[in-house]
Amino acid sequence: MTRLGAVISEAIVHHYGRDELLRRLAHPFWFQSFGAVMGMDWHSSGITTSVVGALKRGLEPLSSELGIHVCGGRGAHSRRTPDELRDIGERVGFDGVTLATASRLVAKVDSAAVQDGFDLYLHGFIVTDDGHWTVVQQGMNGDRRQARRYHWLSEGLASFVDAPHAAIAGEDQGEIINLADRRAEPSRRGQLDLLASLGPDRIVRELGGLPAMGDALPAAPSAQPLLPHLVMPAHQMSGLRMSISDGCTQHWPRRRTPARRILPSCC
Fold this sequence. Notes:
two-stranded antiparallel sheet; alpha+beta
């Protein structure tokens, strides 16, 4: 997997440029197909760990030639991402401190703002010598034995909390709290106002004094119709099935480049 992943990545960089490789890694269907071509079962959630690990090993010897660096990984490796970015930045000249902050923000958004029941355990940060980057990270829901993958792309990213994802890939879990949705901006603003005016301790006291709620109110109709989504066939309980749609309680891909550039016929 290491050699094949490195060769495919090298070919894409030479033919289309480094930014194109970042765009493809940020596309969930291309990423899943890439892992299958490299030798993983297409339905396995282990594709994410294997692809990130193989690229980190395979591209490290080519980093000076290609100008692409893979940081992070699974578990303890993910927590070393900021240090890796700072070290690479000192060596090649990009702002490693700023990128280390971006790495932490990306992880914080997907662990706190997107409240979907998945605990992050893998964080892969792929960065070029120009300071452009993509993040592929994954969370696991232990009770459901299912994984969910989060894709970020620095190209066109205007905000870390206002619809920042290139895509989120995983099986539909029903309604969640997604404070990173664009329509959640009033809620985010209201929470900050409460925090500034009351403080955390008083908020806890006020919540404790509220009467218990009865039956939940019926859900309000969606502010906009859901976009078409793809659900891959179920194969294993631990498999990663991708369902992407639009909505405040679900997730969507944001295409920033024409599809022909994301999925050319050669790869």
